[in-house]
């Protein structure tokens, strides 16, 4: 289990694509690359993966859509910025109270990346003032991304 790059709530691809298609019908345009595994990241490189919650269903409450150029922290010199679009998350909720408490304690801007320009790095650095109201409720599954298998794991 030490191959977990990050943990989060993974959204089923077909369900997610239907929501993206609806966004496109409203006139919002995207970028050239889309995530292979749509998700909400809860923690990068967890020292101790939270395997006890893998496979738990989580409700994702979306409150807005955003399309923004994101300034990267100075310590990331790969490029000056990345362009991305996504949904900003208002609340994450499951039937597991311990998982809910863990998610509430995470100090991050929860979001679901829809598309990006060059690479999905630092997509949590967005200007929320550019957000457009967009309400949506999605279901996802808590798990980890196994960098060796290059796929999510749920058990």
Folded structure, characterized:
The protein has 155 residues and is mostly beta strands. The protein is built from two helices and seven strands; from the N terminus they run E-H-E-E-E-H-E-E-E. The protein has helices spanning 13-25, 97-105, and strands at residues 4-10, 39-44, 57-71, 81-94, 111-116, 132-146, 151-153. Strands 1, 2, 3, 4, 5, 6 and 7 form a seven-stranded antiparallel sheet that branches. It is globular and about 40 Å long. The model has no long low-confidence stretch (mean pLDDT 85).
Oligomer: single chain
Distance between the termini: 10 Å
* Helical stretch tally: 2
How much is the average pLDDT? Answer: 85
Q: What is the percentage of strand-forming residues?
A: 35-45%
Largest sheet: 7 strands, antiparallel
The amount of helix comes to 10-25%
Strand pairing plus helix content: what structural class? mainly beta
SSE pattern, N- to C-terminal: EHEEEHEEE
Number of strands: 7
Q: Which stretches are low in confidence, meaning pLDDT under 50 for 5 or more residues running?
A: none
General shape:
globular
Radius of gyration over alpha carbons?
15 Å
């Amino acid at each position: 289990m030490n191959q977990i790059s990050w943990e989060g709530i993974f959204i089923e691809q077909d369900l997610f694509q239907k929501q993206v298609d609806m966004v496109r019908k409203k006139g919002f345009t995207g970028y050239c690359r889309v995530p292979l595994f749509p998700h909400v990241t809860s923690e990068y490189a967890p020292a101790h993966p939270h395997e006890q919650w893998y496979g738990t269903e989580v409700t994702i409450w979306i409150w807005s859509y955003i399309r923004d150029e994101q300034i990267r922290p100075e310590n990331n010199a790969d490029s000056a910025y990345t362009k991305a679009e996504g949904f900003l998350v208002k609340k994450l909720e499951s039937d597991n109270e311990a998982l809910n408490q863990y998610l509430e304690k995470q100090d991050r801007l929860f979001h679901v990346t829809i598309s990006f320009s060059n690479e999905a790095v630092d997509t949590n650095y967005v200007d929320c003032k550019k957000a457009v109201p967009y309400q949506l409720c999605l279901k996802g599954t808590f798990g980890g991304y196994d960098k060796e298998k290059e796929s999510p794991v749920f058990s």
